[in-house]
Amino acid sequence: MERLSGMDATFLYLETPRSHMHVAMVGIFDARTMPGGYSFQAIKDTIKERLPLVPPFRRRLVSVPFQLHHPVWIEDPNFHLDYHVRRIGCPSPGGRRELAEIAGQIVSIPLDRNRPLWEMWIVEGLKQDRIGFVCKVHHSAIDGASGAEIMTELFDLAPEGREVDLEPVEPEHVPSDLELVSYAAASKLKLAGDAFGLVGRTARSIATLVGNIRNPDVGHGAVPLTAPRTPFNSSIGPHRTVAFARVPLDTVKQVKSALDVKVNDVVLGICTGTLRRYLERHDALPDIPLVSVVPVSVRQESEAHSGGNKVSAMFTALPVHLEDPQERMDAIAASTQGAKEDHNAIGAHMLTEWAEWAAPRTFGLAARLYSSMGLASQHRPIHNLVISNVPGPPFPLYFAGAEMVATYPMGPIMDGAGLNITVLSYRDHVDIGFLADEELMDDLWDLAADVTPAFQELVELAGKVDPTLVKAPAPVTPTSASAMAQED
């Protein structure tokens, strides 16, 4: 039995019938590399074999009576793999748009909290003898870094796989109410012992932040509740839409070096240019920057395989109102640097420490009331969207012998911010997953298609700044509707 951290539990409390707090990944695999050919049973056997390596796939929640404290994880005594691993056929012609449509339907359905909080769907019938892979896991169980670790446990470095000789994990009994209440009381007592220290650390952090704000030589990130309203900033419904894009990683690094910025700045630059084109087309381009939440991992080296959420967040400005790409990149670099200064002043672990004090009943009721009353449409957006950038493996991965061709991650959306952009590097590409509320953004593939000209713009800028690094615009995988129909 293991208690959820406050940050992990917060994702449970934030969940409503309209706001689903699971993360997802869509993968495309070449089934031709599977020994003996494609077999759904081989995939199931691989997952079953690796279950001891993936705790979030074995554990389910048990709530504490009267919600006295955060829930606990136990090894599920009634685990059934068939409930979690399913297969579905892809409509013709079996391209990425059809795969994305299936993924949108899957991520629109909340996970069953009476079972381990994950599902994996194998999508058969893709073009070129490929299969799709749609996996969703509740955010209370993983963050970006721990999600990447799950990939390394499930996948292999060669088609023939690897030897895995592990003792099976024994299921636990469901604890009684008395056990849960006793455990909750002990945890609360331990937490109370650190209350005074937390208040003191918070006061010092606030004093440091105020001092930095008063210092004209110190930059700052974006400020919550200063975001302009856009078509995707409103109350959301339960239905999701999904789209993909990708750009070459080597060229991203060349642009980074030529413009003397960070890779994350280039990613934000691509997103800014993409959003600018989309908002222009909708006659909704604001005259101030968008505000983006950028999750930041605070996972320490000793917590490398601990799972759960070890994250904080930065607020960064996306200057979509600036026409000149050089001015946009300068503004992005300044904002991200300022956001880091703000984040360091507050403290990397401040958010996770205060999350321990989240009151389950109050927090959950407030989230449901806010959602059911559509309050997100009644005030200025807290932020416009979430953009997450996670480094992935630079080498090929295999799942039950099938070579992974592409992988598109997707994070959750919430009331008031109906768009999420999640980025993951894999091999020689940067794969971009878009997830949005279907009613707010029924043209999400048009937004994905805007990645191509937005990235091209940065490539051309970098070529002018340093032709020795970027000599010519690099080809970018097309994402328009017509191009997707021809894609392999």
Quick take:
Helix content is 37%, strand content 21%. The protein has helices spanning 6-13, 40-50, 81-84, 96-107, 144-154, 177-192, 195-214, 249-259, 263-281, 325-346, 350-355, 360-372, 444-449, 451-465, 481-486; strands spanning 2-3, 22-30, 59-62, 72-75, 85-89, 118-126, 130-138, 240-248, 290-297, 311-318, 385-390, 398-399, 402-410, 419-426, 429-437.
3D structure, described in words:
By secondary structure, the protein is an alpha+beta fold. It has a domain at 219-386 and 427-486: Chloramphenicol Acetyltransferase (2-Layer Sandwich). It has helices at 6-13, 40-50, 81-84, 96-107, 144-154, 177-192, 195-214, 249-259, 263-281, 325-346, 350-355, 360-372, 444-449, 451-465, 481-486, and strands at 2-3, 22-30, 59-62, 72-75, 85-89, 118-126, 130-138, 240-248, 290-297, 311-318, 385-390, 398-399, 402-410, 419-426, 429-437. The strands form 3 sheets. It has a 6-stranded mixed beta sheet with strand order 5-6-7-2-13-12, with helices on both faces. A 6-stranded mixed beta sheet has the order 8-15-14-11-9-10, with helices on both faces. A 3-stranded antiparallel beta sheet has the order 1-4-3, with no helix packed on it. It starts with a strand and ends with a helix.
How are the SSEs ordered, and which strands pair?
Elements: E1 2-3, H1 6-13, E2 22-30, H2 40-50, E3 59-62, E4 72-75, H3 81-84, E5 85-89, H4 96-107, E6 118-126, E7 130-138, H5 144-154, H6 177-192, H7 195-214, E8 240-248, H8 249-259, H9 263-281, E9 290-297, E10 311-318, H10 325-346, H11 350-355, H12 360-372, E11 385-390, E12 398-399, E13 402-410, E14 419-426, E15 429-437, H13 444-449, H14 451-465, H15 481-486
Parallel strand pairs: 5-6, 9-11, 11-14
Antiparallel strand pairs: 1-4, 2-7, 2-13, 3-4, 6-7, 8-15, 9-10, 12-13, 14-15
